[in-house]
Specification:
The protein is an alpha/beta fold. The chain has seven helices and five strands. The radius of gyration is 32 Å and the shape is elongated.
Length: about 150
């Protein structure tokens, strides 16, 4: 004869896994968002092979010295904007563009730093930026003096 079900003890344990799966997905999202996917080897100094050394020997001294281009803009007491590319005075914006074109031919990936004086009109700063973009230079940054940042 069978015993009634009410007298039997239920020996199975029921686990609710929904909350545990939620926590696992949250941890997964956290680790994916905080992981740096850059290869650490690219950040370490490496010894390049002989091909890079041979290529460096064929470059001129001017090409090896070209680390970045600094375009300084200052306002003269007369109110005229003066340009200087890597310390060399340039008379007009057309000469700035010509000089940037020459430097771009040496190294098209060279960064350009536009360093205007605080009183330099924005129009002249953007003219230098436009010249650099026209000749094919893409890495253009702007410098600011501590006085300009505090104003």
């Amino acid at each position: 004869m069978k015993t009634p079900k009410s007298n039997q003890q239920d020996s199975s344990i029921e686990l609710n896994l929904t909350s545990m799966i939620d926590v696992i997905f949250l941890l997964l999202i956290f680790f994916v968002c905080t992981t740096d996917f850059r290869e650490p080897e690219k950040r370490l100094p490496t010894n390049l092979g002989s091909g890079a050394i041979a290529a460096d020997e064929t470059r001129t001294q001017e090409e090896r010295d070209l680390g970045r281009i600094v375009a300084r803009l200052t306002v003269a007491p007369s109110g005229r904007v003066e340009y200087a590319i890597d310390g060399k005075r340039v008379a007009s914006i057309k000469e700035v563009e010509a000089l940037l074109a020459e430097l771009q031919e040496i190294d098209p990936n060279v960064p350009v730093v536009v360093d205007p004086d605080y009183n330099t009109p924005l129009e002249n700063v953007l003219d230098v930026y436009d010249c650099a973009r026209r000749v094919g230079l893409a890495k253009i940054k702007f410098a600011a003096s501590p006085e300009a940042l505090s104003r």
